[in-house]
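Reply to dn_fold:

You asked what the input looked like. This is it:
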Amino acid sequence: MRAGPWGGDTGRVVDVEQRKRPGVALAGFAVPFALQVAVVAAYQGRYLWDAGWRGGQYAYAFIGVAVGSIVLGCVLKFFRPPWRSVGTGLLLAGTFGFVAVFAVLALFLVAFSQWSPT
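and this is what came back:
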C-alpha cells in the first residue's frame, strides 16, 4: 500500500476506482447485440407475421436498437466509471448494427447494378 503525501493509506481507494472492468463493457455490448440477433431471428422465423410484421417493421426494429444503443451509450459516457464502460459497449454494438445495415444496403446496390433482366 502507498502512503499519501501527508502520510496515511490512500493507495487502496485509488486502485479500486481506476480498475478496468472489461466484463461491464462486454455486458453493454451483449445486450443490444442480443436484441439485434433476436430481431434477425424473429424475421427469419416470421414470429410476428400474424401481427402484421413484414420486412420493413423488422428493419425499423433493427435500426431502432442500433440508434437506441448509440444514444444511450453517449448518455452513459457522462456518468461515473462503471457506467462509462457500459456506454462504450453500447456504442460499439450500435456501431456494429449500423455497419451491418450499410453492408446489406451496399450488397443490394451492387446486386441490382449487376442485374440485367433479359
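The chain has one domain: 21-114.
Hope that clears it up.
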